[in-house]
Amino acid sequence: MTETPIIDTSAAFRPPRNQWWDVWDQFKTHKGALIGMCVFVLIVLFCFIGPLLWIHDATYINIRSRNQGFSWTHPLGTDQLGRDMLARMMKGGQVSLAVGMAAMVLSVLLGTLIGVVAGYFRRVDGLLMRLTDLFLALPLLPLLLVMSMLFRQRLSSLFGIELGMFIMIVTAIGITSWMQTARIVRGDVLALKEREYVLAARSIGTPPRRVIGRHVLPNVLSPVMVSATLMIATAIITESALSFLGLGFPPDFPTWGRLVSDGIDYLQQYPSRAIMPGLLISLTVLSVNYIGDGLRDALDPRIRGR
Amino acid sequence: MFNYTLRRLLLAIPTLLFIALVIFLLLELSPGDPLADMPLTIPPEVRQSMRLALGLGEAWYIRFYKWLYMFAVIEPSHVLANMTGWNVALEGQRILSWQTRSPVADIIAQRLPQTLWVVGLSYLLGILLAVPIGVYSAYRQYSWFDQTGSFVSMVGFSLPTFFTGPLLMLIFAVWLGWFPIIYDTTLVVNSWESFLKQLRQMAMPVFVLTLYNAAQISRFMRASMLDNLNQDYVRTARAKGMTERVVVNVHVLRNSLIPVVTVIALGIPTIFTGAIITETIFRVNGLGQLLITAIYASDIPMVLTLSVVFAILIVLFNLIADLLYAILDPRIRYD
Question: What is the pTM of this model?
Fold first, then answer.
């Protein structure tokens, strides 16, 4: 830098800036992503703050006021047992979002771990990649269905029905969806490993653990973040599909997928009952996918700054 | 290339064996009891002999071996005999479904046409729609066509089929009454009217799946076209004075189709696995619906056989996708 004769003074005097601000600036220019983020935040607030403000309970059965339409006491009507639909949608959203997030965390952790280990240590690379191929070849939905059939009872007796099912579904989705992340991370790590700074770090005797933590992981962060975002969408859809097929949470426990599947039985008489939760799932997934799209552009340094 | 194919095929065998074993062991642990629906008045010793008749008496590894033998030797011979009419069917016990007590392979053969018609047709339509849309949106990037196309494909990609399915049913079957709600599998197409009826009942499930497939493939197509449109060879082609149509349709399209073809090949197993959810919603009794009913009924031979068939298809088409990639793209060499 010292031999450059002309120094761009405006750049020199600009205060140092965190790179995340640049990412945010780029993210802001993607309109879809921005709208997606607003919608997603609204949905999260609706599901987690809403129940605190709303008077009705999601599981309170009031058979006298069943099958009501839209009204002031029940803005979205009631179901066949007189439970308030608005409260059920909030409660169901909590579960669906929580499952989506938790499964995303699990699958990204697994995927990153396996990807980094496979990419960095050549000795286990072949083995781990065969394992990845194996998981890719497993038919996923059948496997999920079988797993949910299998461990349902055992886990619900261990942790109680709700927590047990939560753990089971999160684990099932997590361990059947890490392969894509692992492949991407491995590819990146293989390229990063040959870079000069990694060589420099290795040559001064840095143990692999610290090379990975200090030099490799920060550099694979952006693909991991993008796949994490997309994973939330996939996990929410998978959970809803499982609930829809009746293999998720117990029937009296509302999730969005379960609400859709309950609503389908009354599709002719009360169409809104299936459409509303379906719309919420779709909106959530759509907004998350848009956020992922924007994030991919924002985290790509070749696009950023243009 | 030949060596590579052979190596991959040989490697696929242990992979598939392992997958079969994993699925078998998972099912082995499952709590479902095939005799749970039988009356409680059956004396225990009769119940025990019924269990033996279902083949449950032996250790798991013997049963796994027997299943494997039936799956790999006896069933293929019967399938071949049915398809060609030759007398090659081998003697021996076949894999029987616990629900119907009939051979699993026969039930699969009965269900396959429905799945192929509905899911296969929607896959084909999806490709036919997606390729031109992807090409044109990439060629006119950021035009209104591209903006709309991207939005529609994002929506189609994000909407779960268990939402679009009921929505379509509500609009077209309940309100407008154009299409029947339930898919009638017993319909025999032998006249113009029955053909129209078949078309009508297929319309909604096919549309739902086509939307999803087209959305996914057109995103790939667009991205791949965009990658290629800025390449040097495109500039060369234009500089040589070729018409825009030749540049796009011959040079760019051919090169951009390479990754898309592999994506399409990777998706083909889903035609067979059937869209479980779409089939459930529209009551199409295809393979996906067969699997889910077998799971509900803990019909273990059926679930096991179907899952392993699906796994074989996935492994096979993964291999085909890799080989196609090498055949289409001369820069890629596996040897």
Answer: 0.80
Could you read off the pLDDT of A197-244 as tens digits, one per residue?
Answer: 888 888 898 888 888 888 888 888 888 888 888 888 888 888 888 888
Question: Can you give the C-alpha Rg of chain A in angstroms?
Answer: 24
A267/B169 CB distance under 8 A: yes
Gap between the Cα atoms of B250 and B248, Å rounded: 6
Which of B117, B64, B126 minimizes the C-alpha distance to B95? B64
Q: Using a CB–CB cutoff of 8 Å, tell me whether A142 touches chain B.
A: yes
Task: Report whether A99 contacts A239 (CB < 8 A).
Answer: yes
Asked if pLDDT for residue A272 goes beyond 70, the answer is yes
Cβ contacts of A139 on chain B, cutoff 8 Å: 273, 307, 310-311, 314
Residue A231: closest CA among A135, A137, A99, A138: A99
Query: Residue A181 is which amino acid?
Result: T
Of B256, B201, B219, which Cα lies nearest the Cα of B126? B219
- Following DSSP, what letter does each residue of B108-137 receive, concatenated? HHHHHHHHIIIIIHHHHHHHHHHHHHHHHH
Of the candidates A262, A233, A102, A226, the one whose C-alpha atom is nearest the C-alpha of residue B159 is: A233
DSSP SS3 for B36: coil
The number of C-alpha atoms within 13 Å of A134 and in the hemisphere containing its C-beta is: 19
> Which residue's entry shows tokens 């998720």?
A248
Q: Is B58 left (phi over 0), alpha (psi -120 to 50) or beta?
A: beta
Tokens standing for residue B214: 């087209």
Under DSSP, the state recorded for B74 is I
Assess whether pLDDT exceeds 70 at residue A305. Answer: no
Question: What residues of A are in contact with residue B162 (Cβ under 8 Å)?
Answer: 240-241, 244, 257, 260-261, 278
Of B313, B295, B316, the closest CA to residue B304 belongs to B295
* Minimal C-alpha gap between A271 and chain B (Å): 7
Q: Do B159 and A149 touch (CB under 8 A)?
A: no
Cβ separation of A142 and B22 shorter than 8 Å?
A: no
- Please name the residue ranges forming H helices in chain A: 9-13, 19-29, 31-48, 50-53, 85-120, 122-137, 140-159, 161-175, 179-193, 196-203, 208-211, 217-244, 256-264, 272-299
All structural domains of chain B: 104-328 (1.10.3720.10)
Count CB neighbours of B132 within 10 A: 12
Cα–Cα distance measured from residue B313 to residue B321, given in angstroms and rounded to the nearest whole number: 12
The pLDDT tens digits of the residues spanning B256-280 come to 888 888 888 888 887 776 678 888 8
Among A133, A139, A147, the residue with its CB nearest the CB of B15 is A133
Q: What domains lie within chain A, and their CATH numbers? A: 27-49+86-300 (1.10.3720.10)
Q: What are φ and ψ of residue A78, in 5° steps?
A: -130, 165
How far is CA A214 from each of CA A185, A220, B45, B138, rounded to the nearest angstrom?
Answer: 16, 11, 67, 39
**Contact call for residues A286 and B151 (beta carbons, < 8 A):** no
Q: Quickly list DSSP for A54-120.
A: -SS-TT---GGGTT--S-SSSTT-B-TT--BHHHHHHHHHHHHHHHHHHHHHHHHHHHHHHHHHHHH
**Contact flag B314-A267 (C-beta cutoff 8 Å):** no
Rounded CA separation A21/A1 (Å):
24
Q: What is the dihedral of CA A45, A49, A54, A55, to 10 degrees?
A: 160
The minimal CB distance from A233 to the residues B26, B158, B163 is found for B158
